[in-house]
C-alpha cells in the first residue's frame, strides 16, 4: 500500500468536502443574512475615510461613521436621480415627434394589413365555396377552437401579469425592511469596526488570518480595475455615438448620447435597446438613409466595444485576453446569458485566490508540506 498516495487522496477529498460545505454555507448565509453581508462589505469599503476623519480631524468614531455613510448615501441618491432626470429628458427629446410619426406608421401598417386581409378573405371565400358541406362544419369548428384557445391564452397572460405585479407589490415591505436593516447594520459595523477586527483576530488562527488578509486587498484592486475599464468603454462608446449622430444630422445629440451612456452600463443589453427600435421605426417610415446610418453606427459601436473590452478587462484583471474570452464563452455555453454575466465575477474570484496564495496553500496541504 502506498501510504503517501492515500494520504494525499484523503487530504484532497477533505479539502473538496470543506470547499463544498463552505459554498453551501455561503449560499445559505446569503439567503437569510444578505442585508448584513452587504452592510459588512460597505463598512469595509469606507474604513479608510472613517479612519481619516477619526485620526486626522479627531472626530468621534460614531460621528465620523455617520458623516461618511450619510455622504455616501447622498451621493448614491443624487447619482440615481441625475441618471433618472437625464434619461427622462433624453426620452422627451427623442419622443417629441413620436406621436405624429406613430400615427403615420400605424396608418401605413393598417393600410397594408387591410390590403393583405382583403386578398386573404377573397382567397378564403373561393376555397370555402369549393369545399363540401361537411368540411364547412369542420372548418367552423376549428376556427371556434382557435378563438377559444386565443381567449384562454390571453386570460392566462393577464392573470400571470397581475400575479407578477401582486408579488412585486407584496415584496415591497420586505425590501424596505431589508434596506433599513442594512443601513442600521452598516452604521454599527462601521462604528465598531476595530472591535470586530479584534474579535476576528482572536477567533482565527495566524496562518488563516495572514492569507485571508490578502484577499480583500486583491478584491479591491481587481474591482477598481474593472470599474475603470468599464468607464473607459462607456466613454468611448458615448464619444462614437455623439460623433455619429452629429454626422447623421440628428438634433439633441448630447441628450440622446447621455441616455445611451446610461443603458450602455447595463451588462449585455447596451445601446441596442435604443438603436434597434429606432432603426426599425425609421425603416417602416421609409427613411432608408437614416436607417442605414443608424445600423452602421450601431455596428461600429458594438464592434469597437467587442474588440476593446477583452483587452481592457484583461489588462485590469491581470489575465490574458484568451483566457478571459474562454471564460466568457464557457459561461455562455453552461448557463447562457447568466453565465456570461457571472463569468467575470468568477474569474475575479479565481484570480484573487491565486494572487493571495490560496491555491498554493491548498496544494501544499494536499502534498503534506503544510497543515491547515
Automatic annotation (TrEMBL):
UniProt key word Metal-binding: no
GO biological process, one term: transmembrane transport
Chief place of localization: membrane
Localization, UniProt: Membrane
Domain of life: Bacteria
Chain ranges passing through the membrane: 12-30, 36-54, 66-85, 161-189, 231-250, 256-281, 288-308, 328-350
UniProt-listed InterPro entries: AI-2E-like, YtvI-like
Record-level GO cellular component terms: membrane
Any Pfam family hit: AI-2E_transport
Lipid bilayer topology: Multi-pass membrane protein
Keywords: Membrane, Transmembrane, Transmembrane helix
Protein family: Belongs to the autoinducer-2 exporter (AI-2E) (TC 2.A.86) family.
Protein name as annotated: Sporulation integral membrane protein YtvI
Organism: Halobacillus salinus
Gene: ytvI
Amino acid at each position: 500500500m502506498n501510504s503517501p498516495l492515500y494520504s494525499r487522496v484523503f487530504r484532497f477529498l477533505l479539502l473538496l468536502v470543506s470547499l463544498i460545505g463552505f459554498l453551501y454555507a455561503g449560499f445559505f448565509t446569503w439567503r437569510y443574512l444578505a442585508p448584513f453581508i452587504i452592510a459588512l462589505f460597505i463598512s469595509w469599503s469606507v474604513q479608510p475615510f472613517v479612519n481619516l476623519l477619526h485620526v486626522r480631524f479627531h472626530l468621534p468614531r460614531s460621528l465620523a461613521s455617520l458623516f461618511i455613510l450619510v455622504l455616501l448615501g447622498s451621493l448614491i441618491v443624487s447619482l440615481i436621480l441625475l441618471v433618472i432626470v437625464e434619461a427622462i429628458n433624453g426620452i422627451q427629446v427623442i419622443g417629441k415627434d413620436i406621436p405624429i410619426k406613430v400615427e403615420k406608421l400605424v396608418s401605413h401598417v393598417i393600410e397594408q394589413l387591410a390590403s393583405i386581409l382583403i386578398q386573404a378573405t377573397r382567397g378564403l371565400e373561393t376555397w370555402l365555396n369549393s369545399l363540401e358541406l361537411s368540411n364547412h362544419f369542420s372548418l367552423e369548428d376549428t376556427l371556434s377552437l382557435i378563438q377559444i384557445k386565443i381567449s384562454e391564452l390571453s386570460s392566462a397572460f393577464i392573470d400571470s401579469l397581475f400575479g407578477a405585479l401582486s408579488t412585486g407589490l407584496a415584496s415591497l415591505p420586505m425590501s424596505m425592511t431589508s434596506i433599513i436593516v442594512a443601513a442600521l447594520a452598516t452604521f454599527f459595523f462601521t462604528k465598531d469596526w476595530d472591535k470586530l477586527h479584534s474579535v476576528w483576530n482572536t477567533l482565527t488562527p495566524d496562518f488563516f488570518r495572514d492569507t485571508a488578509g490578502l484577499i480583500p486587498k486583491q478584491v479591491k484592486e481587481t474591482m477598481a480595475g474593472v470599474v475603470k475599464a468599464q468607464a473607459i468603454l462607456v466613454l468611448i462608446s458615448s464619444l462614437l455615438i455623439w460623433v455619429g449622430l452629429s454626422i447623421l444630422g440628428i438634433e439633441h445629440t448630447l441628450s440622446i448620447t447621455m441616455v445611451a451612456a446610461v443603458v450602455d452600463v447595463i451588462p449585455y443589453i447596451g445601446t441596442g435597446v435604443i438603436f434597434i427600435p429606432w432603426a426599425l421605426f425609421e425603416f417602416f417610415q421609409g427613411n432608408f438613409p437614416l436607417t442605414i446610418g443608424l445600423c452602421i453606427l450601431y455596428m461600429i459601436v458594438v464592434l469597437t466595444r467587442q474588440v476593446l473590452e477583452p483587452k481592457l478587462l484583461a489588462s485590469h484583471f491581470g489575465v490574458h485576453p484568451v483566457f478571459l474570452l474562454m471564460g466568457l464563452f464557457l459561461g455562455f455555453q453552461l448557463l447562457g446569458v447568466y453565465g456570461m454575466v457571472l463569468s467575470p465575477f468568477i474569474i475575479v474570484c479565481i484570480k484573487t485566490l491565486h494572487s493571495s496564495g490560496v491555491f498554493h496553500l491548498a496544494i501544499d496541504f494536499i502534498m503534506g508540506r503544510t497543515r491547515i
